[in-house]
């Protein structure tokens, strides 16, 4: 195949990827850009839950009592999370008669947000509600239950192909490659923007597409990297996270909250309390987490005996974990977060400019065909 024929083939691949997937790429890209700073976005979208009066905290039992007073009788407390970065105390509760949502996914919990100094209720909301949660589900599964995650993963695979073909088409056919960096390569502004933005975002977008596909297909990519884990906890594998998420907190634990915290503190070396998870019908142990330096320290408290044991440290490394950090920018610094933000905005711009370019090409091709047809139909003049 000649270079010209290969270029035409890559052009068709690149064009149809953009046209067919534009309606999906735009919401995925914009939601990903917004979620780079999801904490700040949540503060803007839900100012009431962040209307705290200070950072001083009280005994967790005070927060437990305040949350119970705000919840219905059918709610069971599942977890208390102490505030971070000047935020509220968060209490999560699970309906007693329901194991999970009817369409799958994580169970819907009732979240109670409390003012740390006063334990005043700031807001009560469902865990699946709000703008930030909507964007998370949109970006992770396009709001499509069941197969949405796989659809997003395949879009990531196709976007990697689009990045490669886009770079191929960007490369100038005449002269040095540096000519491609010029803005005015075409008389139309949208075409110039498509070339320019496409070049500068190609590599970051390839990385974001790869990491997104990795997150969507962890078993496949994990097997390639040697990090594949058995599903469902069978044969000594990892616990079934979905089943654990659907577990119901015990209605009346044997150990009082104060006793649990006191026993756990003996293994925490004075670290501040981070969260308390109630025992469930699947794991009859309390889990108390402390915000120690380096990594959190988790302590298990047996609900029947009150014995405290240090929980095994969760693995911090691994390619899969790095892929997620790279994709969402967690602890990656402001520079990479800005790159991710641009990697969300610019694909939407490329999709729009690509559609404009395609529509204009249809117009001049139709005009050219009309002129050729008129020329053929005109009588020959001697």
UniProtKB/TrEMBL annotation:
Coiled coil: none annotated. The keyword Transmembrane helix applies. InterPro entries: PepSY-ass_TM. Signal peptide: none annotated. The chain crosses the membrane at residues 16-37, 151-171, 192-215, 334-359. It holds the Pfam family PepSY_TM. Keywords: Membrane, Transmembrane, Transmembrane helix. PANTHER family: IRON-REGULATED INNER MEMBRANE PROTEIN-RELATED. This is PepSY domain-containing protein. It comes from Sphingomonas ginsenosidivorax.
């Amino acid at each position: 195949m000649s270079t010209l024929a290969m270029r035409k083939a890559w052009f068709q691949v690149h064009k149809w990827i953009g046209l067919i997937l534009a309606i999906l790429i735009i919401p995925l890209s914009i939601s990903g850009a917004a979620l780079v700073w999801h904490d700040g976005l949540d503060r803007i979208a839900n100012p009431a839950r962040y209307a705290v009066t200070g950072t001083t905290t009280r005994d967790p039992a005070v927060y437990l009592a305040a949350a119970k007073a705000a919840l219905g009788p059918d709610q069971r407390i599942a977890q208390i999370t102490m505030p971070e970065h000047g935020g509220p105390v968060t209490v999560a509760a699970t309906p007693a008669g329901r194991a999970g949502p009817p369409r799958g996914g994580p169970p819907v919990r009732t979240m109670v947000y409390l003012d740390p100094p006063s334990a005043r209720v700031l807001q009560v909301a469902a865990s699946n509600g709000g703008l930030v949660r909507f964007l998370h589900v949109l970006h992770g599964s396009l709001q499509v239950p069941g197969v949405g995650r796989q659809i997003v993963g395949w879009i990531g695979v196709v976007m990697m192909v689009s990045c490669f073909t886009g770079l191929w088409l960007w490369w100038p056919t005449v002269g040095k490659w540096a000519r491609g960096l010029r803005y005015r390569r075409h008389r139309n502004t949208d075409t110039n923007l498509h070339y320019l933005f496409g070049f500068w975002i190609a590599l970051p977008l390839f990385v974001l597409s790869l990491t997104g596909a990795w997150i969507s297909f962890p078993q496949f990519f994990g097997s390639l990297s040697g990090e594949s884990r058995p599903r469902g906890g069978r044969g000594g594998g990892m616990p079934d996270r979905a089943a654990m998420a659907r577990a119901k907190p015990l209605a009346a634990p044997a150990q009082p909250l104060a006793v649990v915290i006191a026993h756990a503190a003996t293994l925490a070396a004075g670290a501040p309390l981070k969260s308390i998870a109630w025992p469930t019908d699947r794991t009859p142990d309390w889990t108390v987490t402390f915000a120690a330096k380096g990594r959190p320290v988790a302590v298990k408290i047996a609900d029947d005996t009150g014995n405290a044991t240090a929980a095994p440290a969760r693995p911090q490394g691994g390619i899969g974990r790095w892929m997620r950090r790279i994709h969402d920018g967690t602890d990656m610094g402001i520079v990479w977060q800005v790159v991710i933000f641009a990697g969300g905005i610019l694909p939407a711009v490329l999709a729009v400019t690509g559609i404009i370019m395609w529509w204009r090409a249809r117009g001049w091709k139709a005009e050219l065909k009309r002129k050729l047809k008129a020329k053929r139909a005109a009588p020959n003049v001697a």
